[in-house]
Amino acid sequence: MQFKIMTVEDDRAIREMIAENLTKWQFEAFTTTNFSNVLEDFLAEKPHLVLLDINLPIYDGFYWCQKIREVSKVPILFISSRNNNMDMVMAMNMGGDDFISKPFSIEVLIAKINATLRRSYDYVDLQTDILEHQGIILNLDSGTLKINEQIIDLSKNEYKLLHILMKNHGKIVSRDKLLRSLWDDERFVDDNTLTVNINRLRKKFESAGVGHFIETKIGQGYIIP
Amino acid sequence: MQFKIMTVEDDRAIREMIAENLTKWQFEAFTTTNFSNVLEDFLAEKPHLVLLDINLPIYDGFYWCQKIREVSKVPILFISSRNNNMDMVMAMNMGGDDFISKPFSIEVLIAKINATLRRSYDYVDLQTDILEHQGIILNLDSGTLKINEQIIDLSKNEYKLLHILMKNHGKIVSRDKLLRSLWDDERFVDDNTLTVNINRLRKKFESAGVGHFIETKIGQGYIIP
DNA sequence: AATTCAGCTAACAATTTTGTAAGATACACA
DNA sequence: TGTGTATCTTACAAAATTGTTAGCTGAATT
């Protein structure tokens, strides 16, 4: 099931960041900047969930929450600029379903959205799980890789390696950790087997036109910067 | 990273339910029922996160939160029996990191725990992603299956099939949907190929001593009830 | 600059995975 | 109950994955 999410947020940078990430996570995202009549856009688009900033020009988020509640039980997730406890209580009393304070990480936002959707709709066909970094999308459902619209099939070893490295992007992952993650302690594999598997993974990236995704840190391990 | 979580909750059923689920989600769980000295157990175990019920015998959750705060900055997630806004504000003022009201879904609890851990510890090595149903655990990271402590390796097709069926447990998934999920439209595969792959998956369950996990609904598809 | 060692690459064989064919069952409906 | 169709099972060959070996490359250290 494809959920449609409406974002009401006046800070353009945040608005665009949210929309971009929602799309990335396979939601249908749309934003409104018609702050004098949010309800109009809501009724026109009928989203499955509303992300509502509290600080808005003209009327505030609480006002629009009330307006929406008059016509719909759609789940509403409030976004607050400051970590204000009164806001949080207010938001909940208003009929808000959850509350997130800026600054927030996209992972937390997505987790909250998924949790709220799961609670509000009886849906079992969960969102596609993905891991994204620099335009490279790892699909956890199918174990495939998407690089500028090309779908690349990964073997199980390749998938496991990339999964670990992408989860830890920005940090060096030691060869030892990778070895222990892919092969049980009991099972003895040659140290070079890891190198070969990294090599195979890199070749797939190269064949898709991506040069240096996985970097070697000699003596330390590998990193996706 | 393996996080240790301490649960302080007087309702035995809830306490055990939480502990069981924490373990399932790869946390190290321990509970205390020493309500006259929660701090003692806290100091002995040094957990990474505390789940603290507000209504407790002898002293309440707020008291223990203060006691813990005197010695530690460990993240504390409050559990409230009633959806009481004052409790929520109080909890936050006390130095609580998050707040969840009963009844809560395990998914939400886990999401909140993960979000809090992510905020509190600079860890990028996220929790293992799993899908669980009736004691059968599908590890999304490694593409393996865990059936009463046995680890069973799945091939890529077997993993994809099981993943879809487990995501949709309780619902019938049509053969057509499975076919389209596993094989691109362009790629023509025999209709029986799906049957064979289901058969192979079932054999792995049987070899682990599980009889009827995937049921056939003739003319409709397959279902994990 | 020479040396050393960590990591890279290519080639090979063993193993596993995969799709298909062919015949066997079992269910649904007349 | 009989018939047709959907699903199951087994066996087989093709294809992909995997671990190892052996030799190569390139960075770090002296």
Automatic annotation (TrEMBL), chains A, B:
Residues 128-225 form the OmpR/PhoB-type domain. The keyword DNA-binding applies. It comes from the Bacteria. Residues 128-225 bind DNA. GO terms for cellular component: cytosol; protein-DNA complex. GO terms for biological process: regulation of DNA-templated transcription. GO terms for molecular function: phosphorelay response regulator activity; transcription cis-regulatory region binding. Keywords: DNA-binding, Phosphoprotein, Transcription, Transcription regulation, Two-component regulatory system. PANTHER family: REGULATOR OF RPOS, STAGE 0 SPORULATION PROTEIN A HOMOLOG. The modification 4-aspartylphosphate is found at residue 53. It holds the Pfam family Trans_reg_C. This is Two-component system, OmpR family, response regulator. Residues 4-117 form the Response regulatory domain.
